[in-house]
Amino acid sequence: MPTEQIVTPEKTYTRRVHLCQSITGPLRNWKPKDWKNALRWINKGDGSKYASADELKGAFLAELAKGHEVVPIGDCDNFDYKKGCQGHDIETTPPADESAKK
Ligand SMILES: [Zn+2]
Fold this sequence. Notes:
By secondary structure, the chain is of the alpha+beta class. It has a domain at 18-86. It is built from 4 helices and 7 strands, in the order βββαααββββα. The two termini are 35 Å apart.
């Protein structure tokens, strides 16, 4: 999972961000063989495989019908279905200069 270091005047923390899968991109751009290839690496929410490229495409269309433009890859509880993972702050430390004053 990608992480980024966030530094603000108040604190420094590490933010983890889940990867997300675009829904609109594949529906616009993927050829039949791309859908077939995607069967190898895209699983259903319960971890099982899609039976066919048509079933996978149907699942993407169902997400789009819900207004979702992206879906999370992994277990994300801070997800925006248009913008993706909003980040998970996993560590906070006081700024270095702040602790040096004490
Ligand atoms: Zn997330």
